[in-house]
User: Fold these one by one.
Assistant:
Number 1:
Amino acid sequence: MATQPPPEAQVSLRQKIWDHTLGGLIEGLREAKELEVAGRHKDAAVKRASVWYSYRIVPGFLSLAVGEVQRTIRIIGGNIDRLSDGQCDVIGTVMIAHRNFFVAENFLLAGLMKNPVPHSEALLRIGMAEVCCYSGRSDEEVLDYLNGALRLRRDVENEQDNVQALRQFCRVLLRAALLHRRRGMIGLAEDLYTRALMIATDPVTGSAGQKFKVRLGWKFG
């Protein structure tokens, strides 16, 4: 059960971006600029990649995200150790959307080696399930990563900031639902979609924007 967040947490930058508000886009890019000014070029590039990807429904924004990922790779000189597990997830997720599964896999696996918190581990594992599925790997590999992500639900609920953790796990559930639908397992897919929608419509963990994204993802994913 998610804990009621303080009022300021309900309008955090993450939530604004998740809700696709213009304020989220502006604040996210401003935060990236502040990181750049502070000399944290790697962090700024990853932040911009995350922001552009979150608004990828806008034509051209996915290309901007890919450009920031490529910039990040140049900055780190191929040394993935310089990235956090969350940054590895951002890069892996963007490159999955870009259909560059080789690069995505490298960063996702590196993220899993960094002892991530449960919701981050779940995101990295569902990313690997997508890589395996979309690149034609065996069904066994797909399910190994997919089920490994879903088994983390209880650990996610026990995280200190379980509201934010469950919002992230909502993404895992939707992506798992889409993978099962692609595999022809419609019943499993619909069940996972329903679970994602429950988080998106919950008074504590959900929002109108989150519900819209889940429904849109299910319809067009």
Number 2:
Amino acid sequence: MMRLLGVALALLAGCGGEVVADATNPAMAARPDQARAFEIVKASFARGMRTEGLLEDAPSVRWSETVCPAPAADGSYKTAVLDAQGRCFSGLTYEGCDIRIAWRGTYSASAFSHEIMHCLLDRAGTPDPDHTLDPAAWALVAETDGALARSGL
């Protein structure tokens, strides 16, 4: 069974299917500058924790531009990744570092570094689906989002 990791935006009932970027939609298989964004995330994580051998290859990322049918807490409608039950997430990391992320205009505004952190912790053998085991790792995600923003990503 696949393990889901991520932060829920809202619970939905009866949502339809999700359109994700993948090999069947090559125009969206990778976002522009994705490799550059990954290198920034990788370098930032390496400064704050052990990453040797864990992020040598970029994980598989599929992007979603599906809008969650339920509004977020602030009343806005945001892009989301829908799980099999139709719940909206900003991102999900499946077993094997198979990542889905809702595109929110920039890498720093999307859950890019967050989901790569889930992948890193998974590969290290210390998964943290509830974001409670390693507070320093999640603080590093916020710092990394800042680095991405400063780079225009």
